[in-house]
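Morning, I've got a small favour to ask if you have a moment. I owe you a coffee for this, so here goes:

…
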Amino acid sequence: MRMTVTDHLEELRWRIIRCIIYIVAASAVSLFFTEQILNIIKFPSKDIIENFLILKPAESIAIYVKTAFFAGLAVAALPVFYELFAFIKPAASKEQNISAIKWVISAFILFISGILFAYFLVLPKAISFLMGLSQGLTGTPSQITLTSYVSFVCALVFCGGIIFQIPLMAYILTKLDLITPKLLAGKRKEAYFALCVAAAVITPTTDAFSMALFVVPMILLYEIGVIISKTVYKKRIVPGGEVYEQKN
């Protein structure tokens, strides 16, 4: 039975509501572990920033809430990915043989990999560079508020989790016959420019150094996406079950 536009919108509404419930519930649980989470967030700056500032009496509450919210987003990523892919899956035909569970697991693994990449490789270099630049301008060790630091770290690591979805998006869009490897390869220059713009938008700072730390892996992930798209595009399963090679 085909669903109408109204049915799709109703399904989308309930999936969004469930995603919000997942995030709120995970954030509520994370409130009990905010001190441990804050220690993890502050760890990359332990040799760079000696002390953090709190400028307003109620700022500590905002820090707890913000930390719990970002932690809740990370914890709830798995069911949120499921809701997303379960909504997309009906768009695929039976011959396209798409498994929402495989999508969800792959997306979650890539998301965590991106977070770890940003946390261990990008974040320490970005903090060191930016704080060193600030000290060079002022001539004294710079200080930063804890709420600004938490926002910076969380935004940076979540950007890492998002950009690591590029290969999976290439796989899915190729499976759905929305893109081809020839299109990805032919529009490589335009794609690189779009990735630079995207890096400038999603990077929580405006300096070229932090942007470059994301642009390089984004380009590498794009090229991996091209390879994955070629692999998916060449081998298709026809209704009779025969595997055939499809030329560009």
About this structure: The CA atoms of residues 85 and 103 lie 7 Å apart.
